[in-house]
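Hey, resending since the last one bounced:
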Amino acid sequence: MRLHVLQHEVFEEPGYILHWAKEKQFSVSFTRFHMQETLPVHEAYDMLVIMGGPMGVHDEDKYPWLAVEKAFIREAIDHQKKIVGVCLGSQLLAHVLGARVYRNRWKEIGFYDVNHTGVKHPLIDGLPQRFTAFHWHGDTYDLPHECQLLYRSEACENQAYVWKNRILGLQFHLEVTPDLLELFLDNADAELQENSPFIQSAAEMRAKTHLLTDINRILGKMLDNFLQL
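The structure tokens again:
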């Protein structure tokens, strides 16, 4: 299996996804837009992973490569590739699938629970009905047509969705490792000063670092299930 990662910012790395891919002996390639790297031909990979970033899906004036990336994602869908989108990645997928992407009522930053919606789907076989995930987002999206919503949180309704068993959108971050958490905190600390009942302090987040082991394990199981669909 050949994974290709679309990365938008230096501190939004694939984290645990790379560990999972290494265990599976998958090859991994990258397009790092912040380094002006080029996109591959679609025949060069089997599965696409779209990471997060501080930009929004509508910020093409500031990030012109967003238009190119959206076209690439549309082509990947047409090529029937399996695609996983994380945070901004899930928003880009929702946008390309025709849904509205917009500012959420609350920013959600830190460790907060997500709850299963009750939708039965093999993607979540063996996963808990409720678990703690790591979040760092201010935008959200309407659920795209033909998508099934799998998880929601108190602050954000649409947290995880699946489309035709080929696209998995995750608004939350299950890929974050302790080192990656420190990168988030070092590069986006200003957001922690904003007014929201769903923003934890850096100290609160660091105190919950031990939760990342279970969070990563849930992601590994979810990705295993996704491959079997």
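The mean pLDDT is 97.

Sorry for the duplicate.
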